[in-house]
Protein 1
Amino acid sequence: KSSDILKSTRGMSIVRKYNKVAYVLVKFEVLYHKAWTKEISTMKYVLQATLLIRDQETEKMYSNFDHRILEILREAKCMLKMDLEVPELAKRLLKTEQMLKTNSNNLEVHCI
């Protein structure tokens, strides 16, 4: 029986190891979430950056879209799926996700 396996010395040892791993993973999740939330608060300046920059020598225009914005969108979705708190800035970005992706793609296409 499976209950007999868990009651054995080896089974109890495995359960203890499993619980230790689970504890470490939860602790990591909490630390990662805290650091992520702090990082989001520093991203305001990224949203205020100029989207197009001109090369002084060639006069060619380049996209200055920061792809960390798209990374924030992906991570915010994951945090929400895990029922974790998401900063207001990330929530606002999620509401404009499609527009941000479209604009990013348009900038890349037209600035090549």
Protein 2
Amino acid sequence: MGHYWTYEGVQYSRLGDSETVRNYMGINPSVFYNDGYIQPEQIERVIPARITMNDFLEFTRKLDDVSLERKAAYDLINHLVEEGVNPAAIGITGSMLLKGEVRGFSDFDLVLYGAEAIGKSEKILRSLSAVPNSPLYYRTKEEAKKFYHKYSVLTDLSDEEFADTFPGKVSQGIMIGIPFSIFQVPTAEEVKILSEPKKLNNIQSPEREIFNAILENDSYSKFTYKALYQVKKTENDGKIYNIFCYDRACTEQAQKGETLLIDAEKLDENSYIVYAQAGFIKPLAKKV
């Protein structure tokens, strides 16, 4: 995730890859710019792309011919709102935001703001996926393995380890046949909590440790791009350690009370950090 993504062995850039833009131009020329890279100094004004959930729902209701992709997003958002998630905590991004979804091609991307909304949504989505003939589906372990290889997931987890937990992550699912991702991001106040300390001066080179720990607080462990696990090592005096995680494959890995195996770089006496392909966080046993 981030600036680059890989699909079936080909790596693309989200920012400056004009070939990626041209590929999209062939699919939907009404939405995408056809002249390659735009120099930043040529931009006179930036207009933020913003849409409220009420605007999105109202606009979609008025459409005469709603794409299946938009219907899937509408149904999922509407269900979250009806079940009590604050619409102000939900965002939409990607092609749907630009009203540029491509029938039969696009997925859809939502944004959830804040640990409270994320936790509430998780319970709602788990309940929805469990009802008979549910429109919401989460991939099986075998499908998760295929996802791992198809998108060349950058992580120290093996395909087997990735597939052990991926089906239980509510941020990656399929709604009425349309794949979706939920980007779970912190509020402004939570960003401060996620600020890791500087590495101690006496730690000259990366010092990796592997240890078992009990997850004491999972409130911040579900954020997409930078998560925080607060844990107690199984062999110590009960001290709480902060594990900062930049590996998306290692977010949403466990719930409070579960045992984790952690491979992380030491930052200071209280903190560790995991990067993509440089460490891991994986559950060992479920809470009884």
Protein 3
Amino acid sequence: LVGLGMVPRGEVGLIFASIGLTNGVLDNDQYGALLIVVLLTTVMTPPLLRWRLGKGPTDAVAQADVTAEPEQGWLTVEKGEIRLHGTPPVGLTLPLALRTAVLTKNARPANTLLDWFGTHRDAAVAWDQDCTPLLVKVLRDDNARAWRFLDVSGVLERALPEVAEVMDRRRADLGDLDPLGALRFPVVDRLDDLAHELGLPSDDLLLAALAADVCADSVTATQDAGGCALGLTARLVPAAEAERIAAIVADAHLLRAGVYEPDSFDEREILQLATHLASSAHARDAYELALAMGSLQRWQREALDQRLALVIEALEHPELTGSEANNLAAARRLAAERLVDDAAAVERLRHASNAYLLSHDAAELARQVRLLEPLPRKDAVRVAVTPEPEPDHWKVDVACRDTTALLGRLSAVLREHGLHITSATIATWPDGAVLDSFVVIAAERPSAKDLASEFERHLHGPLPVAPMPDLELAHDNDTLPWHTAVTVTGPDRPGVLAAVAAAFAAADVVVHTARVSTAHGSVADRFAVSDRVGRKLDEATVAVIRAALAGERPARRRRRLLATR
């Protein structure tokens, strides 16, 4: 009987039903009947309340009775009821609904207040950004009754239809046995749970959590999380703030995507991520939202914590104190410009991609652009070899003009000279200039002159590459902000890198960085790639790469104009 008396509060009804079954007060049939009553009353309450609100006079009739606002205000709480004083104009529907929602934490709406909302059931309600602080207050209170009131009053479906649609879909989900599940926002709740560890979230972060909740059910194949979040927040806050909130949502997804391979990020990719996030404050907001989006295993949380620490360390580097350097890539470029005195080399640096600038320190950038200027003539190659800090490791810089399957041709020559490649970066410019930089292992310093001659001999003509169908290729468009991450694994054998490079060339793919790893007779090579106009790869392009690796003859994709980021 107590359980039945508490039925309007579905959670309590379920609790009492479970206690009754456990203690033998209810048998299985009675327990099942009580569950049905609890669920039906919970599901039926919103439409019945909407019907109740719809029984009042029409908005046109009510407008004739509008009064001035009383001294005590439109709303007061008396004896546990939220009471309406006077007759407000219809234009106050939204702010009064939100104020009522806030007050439902300790009181219930009086009948006269419900009747007033019923008279305006057909009135158009557009979101007013002045009401957003009240919405934030509702989010902070974590009060299901507030959301139920906004739902049954019909204000939510008119002012924030995306939120109302998500609540309707959750309510219709028969797999969710929580009667109040439709009135909760899990990401917002988890953000509140993290407050003891991370501090109270800002208003923008709360709105980002709401957008993440709504967009988790609304993202489609043509709209990503950031686009969905921008559509919602653009009505809640000014445009610039909406873009920042949408970026928090998108970058939280970016951070979460990287925790499943904690060892995959090297320094270049960390710097790329730091440049993309741009500020420590934004990085921390995205990190907190990433934690709130769902539980992580301990090792994943540790990986995310470490990644945030590395990003913030990079963003707070002293190089960024100059007013001209607004990101890490710009800081590297400015430092390199100070090391060269040739106008053409400076101009080359100013048109370099961010990925390239982040892959080398200032001294290396200066040395490489000097090697590239003036641009080598067709079929000419310049090579510079410099020692690396690690013993028997050498950096081989190659400057030339772009040609088909260039990375494959260069790597094949290095292999023929017995040089084991451990990493590579590739930079391209719109005028056809290419700077490929390899780190190789050799007991003695390679001859730059001999390598240049061999590179020139292999610039054109057929590139003999053996099919390697046993190589497995995986791609990920979520972990890097600018590029697609491609991982190639399989048995180690001579010519693996050349075969992969040739497959990329067959798909007209640009390689920005490469990291080569060999252990126990297997390779695990990771590449950051894009198409020729700087976009991430689509499924069709990946299919061409796989076909080329297997030795098939895929239809060659139409070559597009070369572009740099």
Protein 4
Amino acid sequence: NFGNAFKNLYKGILTYVPNAPILSVDSKAKSVATPVGTFRGGVVNVIPNHRAGQIVTDASLNNDPTGRWAVVNPLNYASTIHPDIHILGDSQGTGLPKSGHMANSQAKVCADAIIRSFNGEDPDPNPVTASACFSPITSKTASWLTASYRYDSASGTMKRVDASFAEAPKPTSDGMQQMFQWANNIFADSFG
């Protein structure tokens, strides 16, 4: 639905250019040069490649092949470099979606594993995390998608549970109300 909004609803109003390497940015001309052309606009939003926070780089914990993420054990989110440091959310390199909902879910797996370690126990061998994403599409409608992920011991990674994937058929006003309910719930769960 998010992609459809750019292709249909905002066609001719917004230009979305994903995955285009940026050659240069001219703030006075409000233009961005890429290998596929130069784009101009009244407002130009340049979004750099996503990567772990600077604290991860400063601590030399960004050890995935791209140097952008911290590789962690998905059973406890412990760094593979420093096992006493736990990294989750946008900085971890498990391949899971980068979202607040996912970070909240990872935090629960991590906390459970730490408590188990204090008691001399191993982490849960089958953790499950969940992702929910709400996107406002207009000022009155929103879309959503959800999925769950389960640890796969054969690969040592979290794999999406295909039957758990669901997506709104279209943006709706009910979706907007659900987005605010979800936000209130996730904020209360995360911050108390």
